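Protein modeling request. Please complete all fields; requests missing the sequence field cannot be processed.
Requester role: graduate student
Desired output: 3D structure, token encoding
Chains: 1
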Amino acid sequence: MSVLLANKAPSNDLKRIFQCSQRYQASPQCFSHSSWSIPHAAFACSRLLLFTYWSVVLVLSLIQSEERPFFFTYLSHLHQLVVWLYLLAATMCSFLHRRREKTKFHELAVTDDIDINRRKFYLSWYHWLTWVLYIVSFDSALLVSAMYPFFSDEVLFDFCSISIHIINLVIMMLELIFNRIPVNFWHFIYTCAFSLLYAIIIAALHFTGTRSSVYAVIDYENSPLKAWMITAIMLVPAPAFSHLCMCVFYAVKLRCFACIRSHNEEEESKTGESRSSSESAI
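Delivered output (282 residues):
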């Protein structure tokens, strides 16, 4: 049985990934439907399950934390919050899509075809917010999972630690595979902004005398040069590299789409030829 896709990825999307001035024609369906032929209700429910699971992990992490006033000063926990916000926004996009489309269909019933065609690519503010959260969540998942063994004094393997540092990346990979949200390399500036926010937080803790070392490897008091070097790497090089990895995964996804679509077209062509020859023989 051939695999069907819910949408056809343009063949030139691979080039668009690295084009700075490229404007994607992303539609609301990119944020609410799956790339594959998965029923919309099933896809929305799967997102709801992921959101529920991540909410449980966030609450348990907060309960088990021994430093609750400094909970979000840790990169792992700040990343938890961003992923939670993304899953919340993505779940809302999926569940609100049908109701929103029915309302807009009534509003556009008397408009011309041009307005209706424009409406297909109209994004609301929460679509843009979901897009930004998606980029930051995926990139920070790569960074948190990669840096955890180097930043943590003790590598833990309990439920919350595994969820925050391993399952987080699995969740975001599943999102990349199954959603339709486009990816562009120059969107790494969103992750740079997130890194800048975190750098401001830990630097503010140091300059106010509250805490000079959230992590042992980032100690602004005892090892200032090393701490500032790591901070500088976290501002641009690390976000750029993590987003480059995301672009590579996205390119592989598009290539798989192209291969599957080509295979399906060949099968349909062979089926059509066989039917034509059978009808000719009759």
